[in-house]
């Protein structure tokens, strides 16, 4: 799969950025180092000035790619969910058993992420840590409705709806497919967060993974 992914271009809504960072060495460096810096200091403490200092570039050059750090975070989130969608498609294509297809899909969106060596300037394992800690900040804003209309979250919703379609294959009579899948996708991020920071309020750990929990949940819900 890595070979196939290396030949695919991750698609991100062009309204999110001023200039596509994938089109230049500086743009790729901005993406690469912003992931590392956000992971190091957190999104709240992250600024374009600090990123500029880290990559040895003027702060103004970063604004030629993104209007602000919120748009950068939305870009990183969109890139992540687009990458996740590719993995989801490859994990479910040509599988005829709906239950097996659903197990594969749930595993993809809930398992611990390992860095994909085919994307040299993006460390998906670290990006996943950012999504776990910061993704809700892309949604919980005053501008979310307008940004949703402009398609900022289209890829995220597409990932969810792909799994919804599989749930419907497994159990056409289940009437809460969208609520179930959106709960699993976002809930898995929360469970990973709890596993890292609040171990006394989750059963997920090194021996009982988040993926195992959600596979158990969906098997019982869709009986």
TrEMBL record:
The keyword Endoplasmic reticulum is annotated on this UniProt entry: no
DNA bind region: 47-66
Keyword vocabulary terms for this entry: DNA-binding
Pfam families: TetR_N (PF00440)
Domain HTH tetR-type span(s) in chain numbering: 24-84
InterPro entries reported for this sequence: Homeodomain-like_sf, HTH_TetR
Protein name: TetR/AcrR family transcriptional regulator
């Amino acid at each position: 799969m890595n070979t196939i992914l290396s030949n695919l271009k991750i698609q991100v809504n062009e309204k999110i950025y001023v200039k596509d960072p994938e089109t230049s060495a500086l743009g790729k460096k901005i993406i690469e180092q912003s992931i590392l810096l956000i992971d190091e200091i957190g999104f709240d403490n992250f600024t374009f000035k600090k990123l500029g200092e880290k990559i040895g570039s003027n702060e103004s050059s970063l604004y030629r790619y993104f209007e602000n750090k919120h748009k950068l975070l939305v870009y990183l989130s969109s890139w992540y969910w687009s990458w996740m969608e590719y993995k989801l498609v490859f994990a479910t294509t040509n599988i005829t058993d709906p239950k097996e297809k659903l197990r594969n899909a749930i595993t993809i969106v809930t398992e611990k992420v390992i860095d994909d060596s085919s994307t040299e300037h993006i460390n998906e394992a670290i990006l996943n840590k950012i999504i776990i800690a910061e993704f809700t900040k892309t949604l919980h804003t005053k501008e979310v409705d307008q940004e949703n209309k402009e398609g900022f979250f289209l890829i995220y919703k597409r990932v969810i709806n792909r799994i919804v379609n599989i749930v419907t294959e497994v159990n056409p009579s289940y009437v809460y497919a969208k609520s179930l899948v959106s709960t699993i996708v976002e809930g898995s991020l929360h469970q990973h967060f709890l596993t890292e920071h609040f171990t006394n309020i989750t059963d997920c750990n090194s021996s009982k993974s988040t993926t195992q929990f959600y596979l158990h949940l969906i098997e019982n819900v869709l009986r």
